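ok so i was messing around last nite and threw this chain in just to see what happens. nothing serious, just curious
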Amino acid sequence: MTSYISRLSPVPGFADYTGPHKVGTIDVEIPVSELDPPSARTAPGDDIPTIQYRIFYPCEPDAKGKPVNWIPRPQRDYISAYSRFLGAGSTLAEFISYFPRLLHYVTIPVRKDAPLLQPNTSNKRWPVMVFSHGLGGSRNAYSHLVGSIASHGMIVIAPEHRDGSTPISYIREPPTNDSTSEKHHKKKHARTVDYIKLSHTPSPEVEEGRNAQLKIRLWEMGLIHDSLLKLDEGKSITNLNASSTSLSIFKDRMNVHEPGKIAYAGHSFGAATIVQFVKSVFYASETSSAPSSYKPLFIPSSRSAVCQQITPQNPIILLDCWCFPLRSASTRWLWNRPLPCYAPGGPGGSAIVAVESQAFFKWTEHLKATKRLLSANPASSTPSPMGKSPPHFYYPATSAHLSQSDFGVLFPWVTKRVFAAEEPERIMRLNVRAILQLLRERGIEVSKTSSEDMELEVGEDEETNDDKKIFGKDGAVRGWIWLDIYDGQLAGSDSDSESELEEHELKKEPNEAVMGNEVQATTGGLGGESKI
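result:
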């Protein structure tokens, strides 16, 4: 009913989450000076004195918290930044410029600063996921996906990266007085981080630019991990967002200490961030034997807690993973290493869910690179399973690159017109189903999938803790297509060398280009390049 009513309103809106729990949220910004980084304390290449993220979590069902505006404050500045990011002449930018007041009223169906629900898991702790956003994203831009997961009994951390990948981000100035409380400190912005526009045509300069962004993202990911440990241990941490709810509600409530139990997820550049992060941590001890051409972007101490957390067992969720940032010449050694799950004794690809939009699936050369990334031997142009289980790899038909973000749900008419994307809410539910089933298979306790989400017929009113159908290979779920990474299509013909493959990958333009801002579309039938 909520979804139906939202369609009648001129204001874009979200449907309710389908999990059994209500969802609370707290906006967090923590001074770096209060954290123990697993790598260098100084932010790579820039002065970033804080980390920022939004926490989505199961909350008490009777909590009275207000919903959260999808566009953060200052809203006018954020809306202007999104218009600049999308570009003049794009359909969505025109909508934003003509109807900016409508966006002021878009809210996320969460309860601000609501009390945390007591965990009903066997260890009395909620499982935790960290979700990294793509270019043009933010801590709010994937709220429907991460909120849906939180509604099934998980704490989800949604960082806002300060690498110039968001349309705009604000950094508060940390207090200098140690006695300043998290609630009453002076809320002063130190500076603004604007979007950094890099060409989507590969070049050494673009590689260097993306590596610089990844350095910041990986540094932030390490600090976020340390902040979660401190929150769970009940240590005092300043929240510069002056939340009315103390961060102490998370004390002894998060399963962040047990190795291999934090789930890592991301979309596009965010998925690339996750790959680079878990590999950088897992293979940190081997960098001394790497060739001199390898220039690591993140070097955690072997004694750091994050090195204990990242194991072959961590669930990895990669949505439209963008491979280009992972294949630079200076980090090619790491590209050639498999994901940690393929280590001896590991679960193999069964620890991975990868979902491609139809656009990424049709981007042939990139799909070949993605299959190599997901394989047990990315260094080989014809990798084999090597006795390991394959990843859960799917693409939903009629989906767009934006389908896994809030934009697909909020602006369905735009994605339909520009990308021919259909059923945005259903596409989102399919992604959530796959993520939940991966978590269950990795031994992480989450709530059951509802009969509505499983699209059962009337009278089949049952929930399940084992949604096997979503991992089927027979097409039983409409429009949910399984992909085989070992189908002989990884590197083109047998005559293709590695250098030839690279040349194809670098020159090939995608059907739906996302190199520059992840929302461009190249559609020959429309006469060239257009933007939403």
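not much to say yet. The chain has one domain: 16-70+106-531.
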